[in-house]
Amino acid sequence: MADSSSPPVATEATSAATPINFILLSLFVFLVYLRLKPMKPQVLPRAPPATVFRTFTPPELYPYNGLNGMPVYLAVRGRVFDVTAGRNFYGPGGPYANFAGRDASRGLACGSFDEDMLTKDLDGPLDKLDDLGDEQMEALQGWEERFLEKYLVVGKLVPVGSEEAKAAAAQQ
Amino acid sequence: MAGLIEQLDSAIADLLAGWNVYTTLLLGAILAFIGFVIYDTRDADTHPLLLARQAQAAYIRQPGESAAFRSPETPHGYPLRTGLMVKPPGTPMYSAGKDGDLRDIWRRVTGEIPLEKNASSSGTAQILTVFGKEEVTEHNIADITKEISVIGKHLKDHGAKRVAVYLPNSVEFLAALFAGAFYDFTPILIPYNQPHKTLIELLKQTKADSLIAEAGSLPLADVGKSVSGLRQLIWTVEKTSRHMDWNEVPEGIGGKIDVSVWHQLVQDQKNCPPGLPSDSGKAPGVVFLWQESVGKPAEIVEFTQQNLVAAVGSLITALPGPQRFNASDSFLPADSFTNSYCLGLTLAALFSHATVMINSVAGPGVDLALATRLIAPTLTVVSAETAAKLHSTTTKTVTGTLAKLAHSLETRILNSGRLPTDSLLTRINAPTRATVGTTPGKLRALFVSERAGLNTPPLSSEDLSDLRIYTKARVVYALTAAKVAGAVAQTNIYDYRRGVTPSNRHSHFGAPLSCLEVKLKDNGPHKTTDEQSAGEVIVTGASVAGGECALGVNATFREDHTLAYI
């Protein structure tokens, strides 16, 4: 076949601008950009903020029973524990749900989850546990140690009208 | 369908028809670039997510304060570190070890208490002294033990209880420190080079009843008259002045002050030196002076032995295993021993049987190149003034595009988490390095201390990154305070991040040491909320004088739980 096309020399001189060259050049520039771009430092998502230690009175502790998305707290001998991790036991519908948001000391000492183990009057003084025998106080001690190992102490429970309750309210 | 494939086929054929020499060149360049990237990629020194959260916060906080932050070595619920965990020979292998005190550190130096099982050494630590421009002398540990026992017994026999030590960094300084622990007196460490008036003032305030000083460094007549409680004086004389008689006492002092000379005391007992006494109860503490610079008023802090060993133990374990002090390291304290951070690191080096190179050219403003003129240390501790000076002098020499390019390349490598070492690129175009030590490249870690409340020059994270390039070593920045032995917080040795704190203020200080916990108390505008922790720094732990103290500076714990000034 006779080639009557233009002389080959001219086409070679302008061949730098072929499409494949553009593609490869842009690929090269992109790779260099990836390599040279400044790295962002790796971060972890922010940790949840620490719970503030709070002085509770029984009416203030009452809402913390797991309903309405509230955490589950219960009080043992003046110390308020965050038992949200044990929600299956202490949360709504659990076997010990009576204890949630209340002073559970008498119930743990006597080993009973009945309603009459809880103090009825939330505005009255705290249960002094005077009439419990040595066995029951030992049982309570055992329960308290287990709670201290498993759960976080997030507050203390004081009766309504006491000095500490007034001081805590003044600080707020 | 078939038409589509055919169209695609012809489009690709058209594309590849334009293949020519430029295309081959470009392809070669891309492959070479990818090959270089693969060759150059290495893992970072530590996992970046470990640096993304450094201290551990408690889950509960009191109102008006932040949560307590601790080192990850001693998480919440476990006891803080209280000492050295030293195991005297004969204790069962897996016991926890006692806290110990300075006496146990010296027993470890002499080899009486062996190193841990898998560490090997020559049996004792080594102590070298550098004298000016001339020589490096090695000291025999048994001789130093003799000196400790002779001087200690002399002071104890004369009823010394509070002995002021006014010496530059030297073997005599360390001997006096250990003698205090063995022979039941309290060393008072006075920073060297004070004006005479300040020295007299400090001696009176600390109620010193004895003094060990370098011969000729203070006017005995004035000191004797002004400091009424002074009873004993021991001169230490350098070798070149030993022909003179230093025993004479100026008039007016009479028989009140008993003057002796260190090397004569040691000489007299050369043939029958008393041995070190066995443990006889609690060793007394050591008094440190916290002073902005010589001549200024000083805060007097007495640390118990427990404070000191807790600090030393936590400084040892603050470094990860491969980076710790070991018997093959040589340590240069380029800051004065009267700084508890420098002294803590020196004791840690002695405890690990490293070689300690003592240079009397040491202090807050010393030039590191001068201090290392005859030696090549692998570890060194410097003050912030020295580090700032090193940084500014070396930065001035980085001129020219090539040097700046090399520097920025190394900065990129640092940012990706690796410490730059000699590679192909650096051999072609070497970045500027500072001259530290006779053999370049031996320095592997540089410890810098920031003294809280004393207006030390700030080092930003960019400065620290530049220092890593200039010294080709890892740089650790520590926050130190008056009432805390050792340091409050220290950066992770593998933390090379820059730009995490603003460039015009101090870099962050990392996580607290494992012997203490730090919390921030609300102070004026700096309060702790759910979003941030800020306030005045309160430190609790075994290395704090008095158990708990407020540092008087405001700080915050950043998102990565590192401590930083506000």
Summarize the structure.
The complex is a heterodimer of chains A (172) and B (566). Chain A is α+β, with helices and mostly antiparallel strands.
Task: Reconstruct the topology from this structure.
The complex is a heterodimer of chains A (172) and B (566).
Chain A: H1 8-13, H2 19-36, E1 51-52, E2 54-56, H3 58-61, E3 73-76, E4 79-82, H4 87-90, H5 105-110, H6 134-150, E5 152-157, H7 163-171
Parallel strand pairs in A: 2-5
Antiparallel strand pairs in A: 3-4, 4-5
Chain B: H1 2-17, H2 21-40, H3 48-52, E1 56-57, E2 60-61, E3 69-70, H4 102-110, E4 126-131, E5 135-139, H5 141-157, E6 162-166, H6 171-182, E7 186-189, H7 196-206, E8 210-214, H8 220-226, E9 232-236, E10 258-261, H9 262-268, E11 286-291, E12 298-303, H10 305-317, E13 330-333, H11 340-351, E14 355-359, H12 368-371, E15 379-383, H13 384-397, H14 401-415, H15 424-428, E16 445-451, H16 461-471, E17 474-481, E18 484-490, E19 511-512, E20 516-521, E21 533-541, E22 548-557, E23 563-565
Helix pairs in contact in B: 5-6, 10-11, 13-16
Could you describe the 3D structure shown?
With 172 residues, chain A is α+β, with helices and mostly antiparallel strands. Chain A has helices spanning 8-13, 19-36, 58-61, 87-90, 105-110, 134-150, 163-171; strands at 51-52, 54-56, 73-76, 79-82, 152-157. In chain A, strands 2-5-4-3 form a four-stranded mixed beta sheet. In chain A, strand 3 and strand 4 (79-82) form a beta hairpin. Chain B has a nine-stranded mixed beta sheet with strand order 5-4-14-13-15-16-17-18-19. In chain B, strand 4 and strand 5 (135-139) form a beta hairpin. Chain B starts with a helix and ends with a strand. The model of chain B has no long low-confidence stretch (mean pLDDT 89). Chain B: This is AMP-dependent synthetase/ligase domain-containing protein. Chain B: GO terms for molecular function: long-chain fatty acid-CoA ligase activity. Chain B: Keywords: Membrane, Transmembrane, Transmembrane helix. Chain B: InterPro entries: ANL_N_sf.
